[in-house]
Design brief:
The chain is of the alpha+beta class and 368 residues long. It is built from eight helices and 15 strands. Belongs to the DnaJ family.
Length: 368
């Protein structure tokens, strides 16, 4: 049955790449197995949907042929992914045969066709083994989100063995040909079915497809090449990153024996600032002015994220008028920075002296 990747991500068929990306980040964070209410099955479905819909070529083929498009055109059985055997449960096909029908293996037909049509059979390609994706989150300061930073975190995950560098072999020992598969990396399996004897190939469980095994196994990982340990990860956080954005570190996830490590997703939480707020690539702030300064003009010292500057307040400014300071905002991808927007607030005194009152009365008489 064809999978509806749009429904899995909760987006429309005409969704943009940004909408697909945002939906993926949200669901990946929600369903990650390390979370209290995580769901590994749904996490894998979300990841699979994103891998297809985020790639223009794969998405186009998926829209045209459905989720079976990747298996099309492999050998003489390519039609199976378009309705030939897909969705047919051979394990339930167990009646109506006599005279020795029980000699055939009905229950494993699903596995046989699954192996055959996804690359495990004759002439197909072997699918690469891949570790699990994992996620975490960190908090950075507002200033770090503007200018970027580098963070190091400790994370416990399945990683390559530091002793054997993932080979599974004892230091100094040689590799030898796997006796189970004779160095082929695959083993052939023949099954007798109602359709005749069907041959399929599977990755050798002894050497995991490499065709070689160590003469002596690493004592630290017992020959597996991976083990669960605490690892320090260095995260390069780019300038201008937004609150809630995710950084993907390819190969930073769970490692797997004789395979490719999964990815690590880091959600960035940006702490709020006491003075500044982000508006696109601009930074905005409020500045309280005395009434006299608003009328007569002056200069105010402003502490920006780059250091202190002096801002000239022109005479006769209005309440909520905005002054723009060029190049003091957020760095953008176009090798330029946004601006600093200063919103002027005129602070009126709660109490005034007798002398001040007389002056104000005089101003009022003059129409000011």
């Amino acid at each position: 049955m064809s999978k509806d990747y749009y429904e899995i991500l909760g987006v429309n068929k005409g969704a943009s790449k940004d909408e697909i990306k945002k939906a993926f980040y949200k669901l990946a964070h929600k369903y990650h197995p390390d979370k209290k209410e995580g769901d590994e099955k749904k996490f894998k479905q979300v990841n699979e949907a994103y891998q297809i819909l985020s790639d223009d070529s794969k998405r186009s083929k998926y829209d045209q042929f459905g989720s079976g498009f990747e298996n099309m055109g492999q050998g003489g059985y390519s039609g199976a992914s378009q309705g030939g055997f897909e969705g047919f449960d051979f394990s339930n096909f167990s009646g109506g045969f006599q005279n020795g029908a029980s000699d055939f293996d009905f229950g494993n037909l699903n596995d046989i066709f699954s192996d055959f049509f996804t690359g495990g059979g004759r002439g197909g390609r072997t699918q690469a083994r891949r570790g699990r994706d994992i996620s975490t989150e960190i908090q950075i300061s507002f200033s770090e989100s503007i200018f970027g930073t580098n963070r190091k975190i400790l994370i416990t995950k399945t990683s390559n063995c530091a002793t054997c560098s993932g080979s599974g072999a004892k230091s100094g020992t040689k590799m030898e040909t796997c006796k189970y598969c004779n160095g082929q990396g695959k083993v052939r399996e023949d099954k007798r079915t109602i359709l005749g004897t069907i041959s399929s190939t599977k990755i050798c469980e002894e050497c995991l497809g490499s065709g070689e095994v160590p003469k002596e196994k690493c004592e630290n990982c017992k020959g597996k090449g991976v083990l669960r340990r605490e690892e320090e990860i260095s995260i390069n956080i780019p300038e201008g990153i937004r609150d809630g954005e995710m950084i993907r570190m390819t190969g930073g996830g769970e490692a797997i024996s004789k395979g490719t490590a999964g990815d690590l997703y880091i959600k960035i939480n940006v702490a709020s600032h006491a003075v500044f707020k982000r508006e696109g690539n601009d930074l905005a702030m409020d500045l309280d002015l005395k009434l006299s300064d608003a009328l007569l003009s002056t200069e105010y010292p402003i502490e920006t994220l780059d250091g202190q500057i002096s801002v000239k307040i022109p005479e006769g400014v209005s309440i909520n008028e905005i002054l723009r300071v060029k190049g003091k905002g957020v760095p953008s991808s176009k090798s330029r920075r946004g601006d600093l927007l200063i919103k002027l607030k005129i602070k009126l005194p709660s109490k005034i002296s007798k002398k001040s009152r007389e002056i104000i009365e005089q101003l009022r008489k003059e129409g000011i």
